[in-house]
Amino acid sequence: MQLLFDTVESNDSLEWEDEEYGKVEIFVKGMSRRWYKINASQIKSHNMDKPIKDPKHWTSSWAIIVKGAAWKSDFKSNNSMVVDLCIHTRRSGGRFPIGDSLVSLCLSLANDKTTALDIPLLAQFIICPRKRLSTIEIFQEEGIVTSEMLNQGEDPFGEWEDEWEVEQEDMRRNELAFVNSTFDVLANLLIHTTASAEKESIDLELQLEQQEMRENHIEKMIYDWDREADKIRGSR
Fold first, then answer.
1. 3-state DSSP of 166-207
2. Of 134, 141, 145, 208, which has the highest C-beta tally within 10 A?
3. What is the biggest distance separating any 2 CA atoms in the chain, rounded to whole angstroms?
4. For the chain, which residues make up each domain, given as ranges?
5. Helix 98-110 / helix 2-10 crossing angle, nearest 10 deg
6. What is the pLDDT of residue 9?
7. What are the b/e assignments for 135-158, b being 16+ CB within 10 Å?
8. Is 114 within 8 Å of 123 (Cβ atoms)?
9. What angle do CA 38, 40, 44 make, to 5 degrees?
10. What are the φ and ψ backbone dihedral angles of 212, each rounded to 5 degrees?
11. What is the pTM assigned to this prediction?
């Protein structure tokens, strides 16, 4: 936990919200200017009302919750603009001290633009307009969960199956249209190229014919001059 404390104190993008035994709350300001709140609390044992007194504070004995908002003030008012982000430490994180895991999570969220390249749900949260956040409860790998989905008590992803099928069909149509369009472009290019080649060939033949005619004309002129010259010499 000392590593976590030192990291937060030395980083302007990290702020302590609350710190007590078995409980950690940290604000994180991302590169995207979005805000995150990390809540970590030690899991209580089944037979005790107090947290597990694990001297090494292994991550497996802690529960970590990440919330996101466009403005820091949204957390203060606890309004509908705050959403849950299903971002967890790696599966192997349970073998590391909680401080190490939280340091990694804090730095990843502080550099959220870079982290979003590997975590699509974080990218969706970053680009989501603030007003739109009021209708969303959770960002997770499978997709978003809206307030309407939860209120209806239905499978939040079941109703999207038809939309996904339509989207895939649209993608197939777009790909086919792209292939056909590319074929048409290539075909037109080939026709244009062939026509240009034929025109160049005709022009070249015409130039050769004209050149040959000029040469024949010059040869005839020389022949005629030679004959006239012979006549003049013979008359002398």
1. HHHHHHHHHHHHHHHHHHHHHHHHHHHHHHHHHHHHHHHHHH
2. 145
3. 146
4. 2-156, 158-236
5. 20
6. 92
7. ebbbbeeeebbbeebeeeeeebee
8. no
9. 160
10. -65, -40
11. 0.59
Residue ranges of E strands in 45-133: 62-69, 83-85
Cα within 13 Å of Cα(31), Cβ side = 12
Q: Which residues, 6+ apart, have CB-to-CB distance to 11 below 8 Å?
A: 106, 107, 110
pLDDT in tens, the chain (236 residues): 888 989 999 999 999 986 666 789 999 999 999 999 999 988 875 444 555 455 456 677 788 999 999 999 999 876 788 999 998 765 444 567 888 899 999 999 999 999 999 999 999 999 999 988 988 999 998 888 887 787 765 554 454 455 556 656 666 776 777 667 766 777 777 777 777 777 777 888 888 888 888 878 787 787 777 777 777 766 65
Alpha carbon distances (Å) from 20 to 7, 51, 61: 17, 12, 16
Give the integer Cα–Cα distance in Å for 71 and 82: 9
Report which of 25, 42, 121 is spatially closest to residue 76, judged by C-alpha positions: 25
Tokens describing residue 163? 């939309």
CA distances from 160 to 64, 98, 111, 145, 166 (A): 29, 37, 32, 11, 10
Q: What is the C-alpha separation between 67 and 205, in angstroms, rounded?
A: 78
Alpha-carbon 102 to chain mean position: 26
- Contact residues for 40 (Cβ-Cβ < 8 A; gap 6+): 23, 24, 25, 62, 63, 64, 65, 98, 102
> Closest Cα partner for 102 from 65, 150, 135, 71?
65
